[in-house]
Amino acid sequence: MEQNMSGFCIRGGSVSANSGSTGTKCGRWNPTTEQVNLLTELFSSGLRTPTTSQIQKISTQLSFYGKIENKNVFYWFQNHKARERQKRRKVSFDDDDKDVNIRPENAMNFSTQNFAYHVSEPERLTQTLQLFPLNSFHGESETLKLGVHGNECRDTTMFSYKMGEQMDHPPLNLRLSFM
Amino acid sequence: MEQNMSGFCIRGGSVSANSGSTGTKCGRWNPTTEQVNLLTELFSSGLRTPTTSQIQKISTQLSFYGKIENKNVFYWFQNHKARERQKRRKVSFDDDDKDVNIRPENAMNFSTQNFAYHVSEPERLTQTLQLFPLNSFHGESETLKLGVHGNECRDTTMFSYKMGEQMDHPPLNLRLSFM
DNA sequence: GCAAATTAATGATTTATTCAAG
DNA sequence: CTTGAATAAATCATTAATTTGC
Q: Which stretches are labeled DNA-binding (chains A, B) (predicted)?
């Protein structure tokens, strides 16, 4: 059924133009928006690991919107499932931009020094924010009500904002200088 | 609904008070330039979802430059992250092909971001995928070579994808509607 | 120049997900 | 299967920019 991979690359539709690289590479499946929507729907409906016959059916349905193969469906679910999980695992620092690579490794330098600011004026100064207080473990619950204080504006808002596994932030030591 | 803000709230009055003495307007947090600069610095350094203690520290630091609360920091990162992503999403879809090997091991290759357009797009259509045709067993082998066709780019990858334990999906009859 | 009117940004809430525990 | 934790997406709402008539 799939003979001409060539058709794969750029599908019309709403797939934004992948600049340059055009159809020539039989590279990889490039799902159409409709296909993605449908797959996402299925995923949202609870489907995680489709069986073979499910895959076949899905693939058949989706082929209506563009070229697609069984393996594409298979991979899609595998990847989507894995990445959803991954997302939930290391949520905290996710530079979810594909373009910008800001790796934790870049900006960190950790020294245990807390800035106490009972100083006075924020004029010229270079300040160091100590973040990531060494996540080893405080043992403390690390749950903070962000808007709780009744004297605040309105906080009926309570979102206990717990940090569990996103504790994996690398130590971050930013040197912030204001003119 | 009334914003029952606390002391700082001074409704009305001089509205167009521009930068400078940003103090004490009300309604909602209005970050000073310095605060925004710092937050942006942190964001640029890779911080996306600060932990509770990070929020506290940041807030403490920034309070030096003006009124601020933990929740403001929390919100700022949430919004900034979301809006950066939104911005990027318009240009997303880089399918960096080049690598044609589609194997189960390497298959984690299509970017999740491509699924960015969440569902709910204008396209009137209601489709029903019939999965799992109610009759429990076909007796058929249910084993499908997903990537079998050697005429594909090169992936002779075949994973016979047997469904043993994932057979537990209930008959799924999805009504997928996009409108 | 200046405010009223309109628009653009962005702070704050609500809603819908996902995964994981029970 | 149900529920809780924890977002991210979507949305609401208010503030700042700006446009516009005078």
A: 24-88
Beta bridge partners of A175: A128
Give chain A's count of helices (H) and strands (E).
3, 4
Q: Work out the number of other CB atoms within 10 angstroms of the CB of residue B34.
A: 17
Distance from CA of B64 to the nearest CA of A (A): 7
pLDDT grade for B65, boundaries at 50, 70 and 90: very high
A78 touches B: beta carbon within 8 Å: yes
Has residue B163 got a pLDDT over 80? no
Distance (Å, whole) CA A62 – CA B127: 11
Q: Mutate one of A51, A142, A162 to test the B interface: name it (highest B CB count within 10 A).
A: A51
Inspect the interface and report whether the beta carbons of A151 and B55 lie closer than 8 Å. Answer: no
Instruction: Map out the domains of chain A with their CATH numbers.
Output: 33-91 (1.10.10)
CB atoms within 10 A of CB A75: 22
Whole-structure pTM value: 0.54
A63 touches chain B (CB under 8 A): no
Q: Is the pLDDT of residue B47 over 80?
A: yes
Whether chain A has a CB inside 8 Å of the CB on B86: the answer is no
Judge: A44–B119 Cβ closer than 8 Å, yes or no. Answer: yes
CB contact under 8 A, A25 and B98: yes
Partners of residue A172 on adjacent β-strands: A131
In 3D space, the residue among A55, A64, A60, A66 whose CA is nearest the CA of residue A14 turns out to be A66
Q: How many helices (H) and strands (E) does chain B have?
A: 3, 2
* Percentage of residues of chain B with pLDDT beyond 90: 28
- Report CB contact under 8 Å: A96, B74: no
Tell whether A49 lies on the interface with B, counting CB pairs under 8 A.
yes
C-beta of residue B45 within 8 angstroms of C-beta of residue A174:
yes
Q: What is the mean pLDDT of residues B57-85?
A: 94
Q: Three-state SS for B11?
A: coil
Distance in angstroms (rounded) separating the CA atoms of residues B177 and A106: 45
